[in-house]
């Protein structure tokens, strides 16, 4: 018994010594963060809302942190490919995910098997923007004067119209499913690998309408697309003359999505806090507000905890829609 107590005592001393030497090292590493380049992995192709938001943050974040911030696009599976890559990186804050909230709040309901657990393997770092979706049509294909006329046309011509989306289960797809469910209308869904290629086909007439996460608003100004309504509870501050879908007869229509930054689970809290503080400063800057205005998005500075809570709320409402509409992942 004495020998056992002696062995236990020696082990305790060794363990304490290791902790005493290791913990200061961890503290120093956190205090010196960042001391090398940071990668931002975007879950959608170049040109989409996630890509534009990531690049709007990257340069001012580089200036604030004094290290390069490199943006990479890893599209596919509604964000799962990028998310899976990020969770497999060291949890040190040097690899961040930029994605729509769908990676956390939609995909677990959409896919029977996930490559990772978003609630455990990812930690919210900072929300970036509330991205609205705008109901737009190609006026050469669908010559309607307003949203009411469009809905009437859609209901009167089941299966005649098609719509493009960034992919199955994306917020633009779910917005279209909300509209179809409330109007009992049918239109053909054409999923793409991102909003940008879907927008190109809307402009080219390969699809008839789209719930646009803002990247097509420049084409509304040029007259190539017609903006009919916004899929939000309130009108867009940038387009106050455009009605919400609730105003044209639908009920409780809300397809807004929060895009933001995540890190691998286990990333030290001081690192998350530093990133959150610096990113929130960028979100409040006039330059960022102006860039978001171009895509109809609204900067959304908040704490990591509030960002995580937002994802939980969206998970409940989108999960119910996915089950009701029997929507499956690719």
Question: Describe it for me?
Answer:
By secondary structure, the protein is of the alpha/beta class. It has two domains: 35-130 and 257-325, D-Maltodextrin-Binding Protein, domain 2 (3-Layer(aba) Sandwich); 134-248, Periplasmic binding protein-like II (D-Maltodextrin-Binding Protein, domain 2, 3-Layer(aba) Sandwich), CATH 3.40.190. Helix content is 46%, strand content 17%. The chain has 13 helices and eleven strands. It has helices at residues 2-31, 49-65, 80-87, 102-105, 107-110, 118-121, 147-156, 171-183, 195-204, 217-222, 269-283, 286-294, 304-325, and strands at residues 38-42, 69-73, 95-100, 122-131, 134-137, 162-165, 188-191, 209-212, 226-230, 257-264, 298-299. A six-stranded mixed sheet has the order 2-1-3-10-4-11, sandwiched between helices. Strands 7-6-8-5-9 form a five-stranded mixed sheet. Helix 8 (171-183) packs across helix 13 (304-325). The protein is globular. The chain starts with a helix and ends in a 5-residue tail after the last helix. The model is unreliable at 1-20 and 22-26 (pLDDT under 50).
Record keyword descriptors for this entry.
5-stranded mixed sheet, 11 strands, 330 residues, disordered N terminus, alpha/beta, D-Maltodextrin-Binding Protein, domain 2, globular, single chain, 2 domains, 13 helices, 46% helix, 6-stranded mixed sheet
Summarize the structure.
The chain is of the alpha/beta class. The protein has 13 helices and 11 strands. The protein has 2 domains: 35-130 and 257-325, Bordetella uptake gene, domain 1 (D-Maltodextrin-Binding Protein, domain 2); 134-248, D-Maltodextrin-Binding Protein, domain 2 (3-Layer(aba) Sandwich), CATH 3.40.190.10.
């Amino acid at each position: 018994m004495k020998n056992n107590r002696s062995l236990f005592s020696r082990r305790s001393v060794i363990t304490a010594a290791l902790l005493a030497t290791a913990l200061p090292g961890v503290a120093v590493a956190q205090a010196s963060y960042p001391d090398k380049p940071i990668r931002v992995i975007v879950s959608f192709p170049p040109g989409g809302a996630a890509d534009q938001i990531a690049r709007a943050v990257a340069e001012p974040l580089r200036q604030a942190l004094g290290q390069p911030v490199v943006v990479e696009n890893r599209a596919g599976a509604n964000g799962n490919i990028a998310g899976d890559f990020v969770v497999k990186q060291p949890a040190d804050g040097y690899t961040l995910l930029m994605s729509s909230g769908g990676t956390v709040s939609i995909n677990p309901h959409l896919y029977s098997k996930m490559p990772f657990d978003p609630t455990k393997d990812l930690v919210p770092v900072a929300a970036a923007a509330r991205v609205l979706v705008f109901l737009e049509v190609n006026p050469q294909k669908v010559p309607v004067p307003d949203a009411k006329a469009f809905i009437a046309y859609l209901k009167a011509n089941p299966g005649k119209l098609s719509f493009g989306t960034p992919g199955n289960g994306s917020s633009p797809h779910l917005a279209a499913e909300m509209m179809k469910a409330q109007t009992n209308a049918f239109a053909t869904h054409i999923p793409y690998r991102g909003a940008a290629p879907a927008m190109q086909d809307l402009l080219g007439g390969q699809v008839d309408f789209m719930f646009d996460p803002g990247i097509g608003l420049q084409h509304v100004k040029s007259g190539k697309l017609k903006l009919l309504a916004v899929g939000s509870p309130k009108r867009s501050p940038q387009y106050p003359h455009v009605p919400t879908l609730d105003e044209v007869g639908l009920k409780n229509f809300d397809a807004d999505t929060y895009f933001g930054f995540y890190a691998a689970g286990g990333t030290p809290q001081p690192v998350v806090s530093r990133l959150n503080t610096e990113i929130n400063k960028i979100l409040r800057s006039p330059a960022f507000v102006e860039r978001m205005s171009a895509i109809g998005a609204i900067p959304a500075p908040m704490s990591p905890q509030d960002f995580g809570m937002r994802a939980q709320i969206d998970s409940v409402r989108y999960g119910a829609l996915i089950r009701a509409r029997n929507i499956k992942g690719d």
